Amino acid sequence: MALSQDFIEQIQTLLGSEAEALLQAISGTDASVSVRRNPLKTSTTALIHLQQVPWCAEGAYLNSRLPFTFDTDFQTGRYYVQDASSMFISHALRRLVDSPVRYLDLCAAPGGKTTSALAALPEGSLVVANEIVPTRAQILRENIIKWGFPNAVVTNNRPADFARLGALFDVVAADVPCSGEGMMRKDPEAVAQWTPALVNECARRDIEIIGDAWQCLRPGGLLIYSTCTYNRLENECIVEHICNTYGAESIDLGTPADWRIALGINCNHHCYRFMQHRIEGEGLFMCILRKPLEGTQPAASAKRVKPAKKAAPAVPPQAKTWLLTPDEYAISADAMGTVTAIHHAFAPLMPVLANSLRVLHQGITLGAIKGKSLVPSHALALSTQLNAHAFASAEVTYAQAIAYMRGEAITLTDAPRGYVLLTHQGAPIGFVNNLGNRANNLYPKEWRIRSTHAPEQKPDILK
User: What's this model's pTM, rounded to 2 decimal places?
Assistant: First the structure.
């Protein structure tokens, strides 16, 4: 699809002599493909045979796009498919954050930057990932559960809902909705929808989002502002607004020259531009801003939770044995019988969030109480806190693993009756209830692989 003349003229005004190189890259070159491994589920040698992403230790470029849907490693959160430019948040967090924090990803779906943060933040951090659109929030929930880190919460709220919490977070990431100019190379819809009016609309909306984000950021905390677009109105102009309105200070991230990341345009602040003619990745803008220490804002405190109409059942004793370090977690059941484990460090905060937000996921969902049984959850199978020795296990073939992820029944020959943890190449992929002649499939119905065109062999990305 041809780029509009208004967009071409905007880029020419913005970049001058570099404009033609960027326009050619958008129209005439293919997008790169990159993945980022999960450091708690893979070894440091995974992906090392590939070209590395310069600013992300876990990131690497692939030679071509592969059928990720049919890779059990992808489906179980051992790696994430993410544009290399977006992995820059890993560099920012590792450079600036050296102790546990409360981290809010305000516009998080589908979850790429959130999983980057989960991997890059110091151990003991809490990550709250939010998405306003319900369908996208469910995709975010799925990706966070697959990633498997225990100290994560997924919510489905407006940014204004977080402002009511007060200065609760040490870091707030706002990868705001934008005009999408940086995605035009691989997304025809971004080309079709672009107009100067859309740019103005996005800029106005982003100022509102930042106003809400600022209220829930503690004094001295960090705001990570990013877009996937090029124009100054949604980028440098928003940064100038934040600095002028709130007294924020931008932070120098120290990017080496050979990374070929461009700096801000007509701007005195530390801004970073990723453009396709310079780097292997799509368009991205990012700036890290520190909130002044002057003044204090009270953080929200726990309000009295309304009692449930139905009493919660007692937690079965075996639930505690399902975790690697159970003494670190508060384990409880809700009125529906869902059993959840929350790290003791964050247990007091959960009522604060629940009183103001629509929480879709928190901590580790261990299972569901059904009659006298505790049915283990798929989230537990993918958690890095899973105690695999608490369950009987059965290694399955690649064909069986894909059948399982399609929701089909599995037959196990040498496994005992009851709940069995399935593994493929030694990695957990989920639970079944083995009845002997067949095994009831406990894979989440909404996550099932719908396509029937699976390759005969598993894509071998992690080596």
Answer: 0.95
